[in-house]
Specification:
Elements (H helix, E strand, L loop, with lengths): L2 H16 L4 H7 L34 H11 L15 E5 L5 E8 L2 E8 L5 H24 L7 E6 L5 H10 L2 E4 L6
Length: 186
């Protein structure tokens, strides 16, 4: 199996572990106490994590800046860590759910979904972009499962500015890689 296939199997097993309903019974059986704090503060400063935002959706058409970044990334797969010989990404990839991803690359190990945010995106838009990447990853993996393929898909966020620390902490917790590129002039 490829590394991506092995990682996908481990992630599926982790999801099963985390969704197990009877952990309290296990703790009681072994006379253990639950951890109430979750992630230890030494690992991540929990006070410095951007909380999930609500709203901020725009009814405006796609901006020129967003389109520029999307077109650039779709034709330059290396900016998201893919080999240069990867086929161009498909823009406005339509999922069975009716959602659309900015870009999806087909790779030898599955798919890579890309959410794009341009130089004009504010922090609320970047926050939303992280959750869109989470959604794209889940949808791509669901499509792979429906086709009886290992769920190896990943998704990333591409932006034109460095994330504030609280948003980067959120990206790390969500497992979303962030790539910062420069296409538009500020």
């Amino acid at each position: 199996m490829s590394e991506d296939e092995k990682r996908a199997i481990v992630e599926e097993i982790h999801q099963d572990i985390f969704s197990y309903e009877y952990w309290d019974d296990v703790l009681t059986e072994y006379e253990l106490h639950p951890i109430h704090d979750g992630i230890e503060e030494e690992v991540v400063d929990v006070d410095n994590i951007e909380k999930p935002g609500r709203g901020g959706w725009s009814s405006e058409e796609e901006s020129k800046q967003h389109k520029n970044v999307k077109d650039f990334v779709a034709t330059n797969p290396h900016v998201v860590g893919l080999p240069r010989n990867t086929k161009n990404g498909q823009e406005e990839y339509l999922f069975a759910s009716g959602d659309k991803a900015d870009i999806v690359f087909e790779t030898e190990n599955g798919y890579l979904g890309v959410e794009v945010k341009s130089i004009i995106s504010n922090n609320a838009d970047l926050n939303r972009g992280l959750f869109q990447a989470v959604k794209y990853q889940a949808l791509l993996r669901s499509e792979q499962k429906a086709l009886l393929f290992p769920p190896t898909a990943r998704a990333v966020l591409v932006t034109e500015r460095t994330l504030p620390a609280a948003l980067q902490n959120l990206a790390d917790i969500l497992g979303i890689s962030v790539f910062v590129i420069s296409v538009n002039k500020a």
